[in-house]
Design a protein that fits this description.
The chain is globular. The protein has six helices and two strands. It has 155 residues and is mainly alpha-helical. α1 packs antiparallel against α4, α1 runs parallel beside α6 and α3 packs parallel to α4. β1 and β2 form a beta hairpin.
Length: 155
C-alpha cells in the first residue's frame, strides 16, 4: 500500500514540474471533466488525501474552497504540508489499523462504514483517476503527459 502512495507522489511531483512549463492561463483554463482545470485537479487529489487521512486519524482536516486556489505554488505548498502527515500515518499503519472501521455520515444523513484499508485504496485509485484526466488534457494542449508507467519506476 505504501508503495502506491510513493508512486502517486512521484507522479504528482512530475506533474508539478510539467505544470511549471505551461502558461498560467492553461493551468486555470476551464476544461470538461474532473475538477474543471489542471490546477484544481492537482489540488483536489491532495485535498482528498488529507481529508481521508485526517478522518482516519480523528484529527481536523484543512478546509479550503477549491475556487480560492489560484496558483501552482499554493498547490505545491499544500502537497508539502500533506505528504509528511500521510507518511507518518502510513509508517504507523498495521493490521489492527487496517481493519479499523470509520463511520461517515453523508450530507443526506446516511451512515457509511469503511475499513481504513478500503479508504487507503480509495485515496490511491482516486489520484490515479485524476492523473489520467491530466494526461488527456495535456494532449489537448499538445504537451507530452507525465509517464505513469509503474514498471519503469523505482518505488
Amino acid at each position: 500500500m505504501k508503495d502506491m502512495f510513493f508512486y502517486n507522489w512521484q507522479i504528482r511531483e512530475e506533474w508539478f514540474v510539467w505544470s511549471e512549463k505551461i502558461p498560467h492561463e492553461e493551468l486555470i483554463k476551464k476544461r470538461t471533466g474532473g475538477m474543471g482545470s489542471i490546477l484544481h485537479n492537482l489540488y483536489h487529489v491532495i485535498d482528498c488525501e488529507q481529508l481521508w487521512i485526517n478522518k482516519m486519524k480523528g484529527t481536523p482536516a484543512t478546509r479550503r474552497d477549491i475556487n480560492d486556489i489560484s496558483s501552482l505554488e499554493e498547490v505545491v505548498a499544500f502537497s508539502e504540508l500533506t505528504k509528511p502527515i500521510t507518511q507518518l500515518f502510513l509508517e504507523s499503519y498495521n493490521s489492527e489499523a487496517e481493519n479499523r472501521i470509520l463511520q461517515i455520515k453523508s450530507k443526506r444523513g446516511e451512515t457509511y462504514s469503511f475499513t481504513n484499508d478500503k479508504i487507503l485504496k480509495h485515496i490511491i485509485a482516486h489520484e490515479i483517476h485524476h492523473i489520467g484526466q491530466l494526461s488527456v488534457w495535456s494532449r489537448e494542449i499538445e504537451m507530452k503527459p507525465v509517464s505513469s508507467d509503474i514498471l519503469m519506476r523505482e518505488i
